[in-house]
């Protein structure tokens, strides 16, 4: 289990990680998030690196003994609140009215 620490929701669970003796599965709970998964470990006398960038929110693969796994996630872009859009639109309408009055006097 990986926990997202993004300031707004400090305890949001974004992914689940299951591990068996030779396989692993990593899946996103919220499809709006994306992630990059990096694992590296020792296999015999070699170091193995693997990097996954899934498109469907699911990663599966072979596990490596004595491996370290890292998950980096990207939060979805924030959507403006309706009040913010209302304030922006009312300001633009006010500027249009002021410009019309100043440049096109009656």
Tell me about this structure.
- The longest helix has 22 residues, at 82-103.
- The protein has a 4-stranded antiparallel β-sheet, with no helix packed on it. It has a 3-stranded antiparallel β-sheet with strand order 5-4-7, with no helix packed on it.
- Residues 1-12 have low confidence and may be disordered.
- A hairpin with a 3-residue loop joins strand 2 and strand 3.
- It has one helix spanning 82-103, and strands spanning 2-4, 12-19, 23-28, 34-43, 46-52, 58-62, 67-74.
- It has 106 residues and is α+β, with helices and mostly antiparallel strands.
- The chain is rod-shaped, with a radius of gyration of 24 Å.
- Helix content is 21%, strand content 44%.
- The protein is built from 1 helix and 7 strands.
- The protein has one domain (2-79): Immunoglobulin-like.
Summarize the structure.
This protein is α+β, with helices and mostly antiparallel strands. The protein has one helix and seven strands; from the N terminus they run E-E-E-E-E-E-E-H. The chain has a four-stranded antiparallel beta sheet, with no helix packed on it. It has a three-stranded antiparallel beta sheet with strand order 5-4-7, with no helix packed on it.
């Amino acid at each position: 289990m990986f926990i997202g620490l993004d300031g707004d929701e400090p305890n949001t669970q974004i992914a689940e990680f299951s591990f068996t003796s030779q396989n692993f599965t990593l899946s996103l709970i919220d499809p709006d998030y994306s992630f990059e998964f990096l694992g590296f470990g020792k296999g015999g006398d070699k170091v193995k690196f693997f990097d996954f960038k899934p498109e469907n929110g699911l990663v599966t693969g072979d596990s490596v003994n004595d491996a370290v796994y890292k998950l980096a996630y990207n939060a979805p872009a924030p959507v403006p609140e309706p009040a913010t859009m209302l304030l922006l639109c009312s300001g633009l309408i006010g500027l249009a009215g002021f410009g019309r009055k100043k440049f096109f006097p009656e």
